[in-house]
Amino acid sequence: MIEGILEISDSFHHGISLLLEAVAAPFYALKNPLSRVYLGYLLGGILVALVAVSFSWAKVDGLRKMFSREVWLHRSSLLDLRLMMVRALLSSLLFTPFLLESSESALWMHSQLKYRLGAGPLAGLGGAETEPTFFSLLVLAGISFIAEDGARYLMHRLFHRSSWLWSLHQVHHSAEVLTPFTVYRSHPFDGLVMKTVGALALGVSVGVAAWFFGYRLQVWQVMGVHGLSALWIFFGANLRHSHIFLRYPAWLEWVFLSPAAHQLHHSRTNDESAANFGAALSIWDRMGGTFRRPQADDKVEFGLDEKEMNHSQKVHSVIFGPFAEWALRIRKILRPVD
Predict the structure, then answer these.
(1) How many CB atoms lie within 10 A of CB 199?
(2) I need a surface site. Which of 44, 98, 125, 190 has the fewest CB within 10 A?
(3) From CA 287, how far away is CA 223, in angstroms rounded?
(4) Cα radius of gyration (the chain)
């Protein structure tokens, strides 16, 4: 009996611990370099925003909104934070066993290729792996960055094309104001799918490239984070979810999507939201015919029309609303014809 009571007590304390960690998730994220809203990345975004406004590349009104109570205390922003907490809790309770690590997929792919095909075409004599150099780390980082970005583009576009997946993804597009924390505003299953696709693409590309060149299975990292991803986020990626309408010069937009380009993707207007699906690189949208370059006079209103939404601005509605829509669709499919 005593053992049973102790087990119940341990379970209770474990549950309380998970709950407290979920509540503190936004604060933990600020000090975690693996988080998109790591304080260092946020400071980098602020620096880019200040430079952009100083050189009139972006309007000062956007900078004001960046620090506006009206934006940060908006019901949409508060929902972003609540969803971040709920996702952290669900990840601990349900999703952790199913999360794919990019290192696992890289190791599996690398070992399979070596076992089945031997040394890669450009591997050293005898198939020996070369010691990691900055060049080799950078090569693997570049290849994996491009592969992951391409996979995310395809998956993101599919989330918009499939009405079933759109039921989940519209949670992200229902944001009425944008802050860096809006990146966490997604249905838990949407986030799980995108994380899995990204990790798989990153891992497989690293495994294949390392085998092909004969490099050790290692990429360039900064603070334990993929080096190129860290640089991309530091130099303004968080401004994508902000009111800083920063456009890049045409030559730079040929390669990278500007914050303004992603803000167009969040537009209520359908022809604008059906463009710019890429995360970092614009080449995928150009190849797929979905690129739209932002113009200086663009006026973007964020969010979705309420009649298009399957949820309200409440956490429980965000979680269960898409499933309720799925249930109605399945019922219509299964309902016999009168």
Answers:
(1) 20
(2) 125
(3) 33
(4) 22
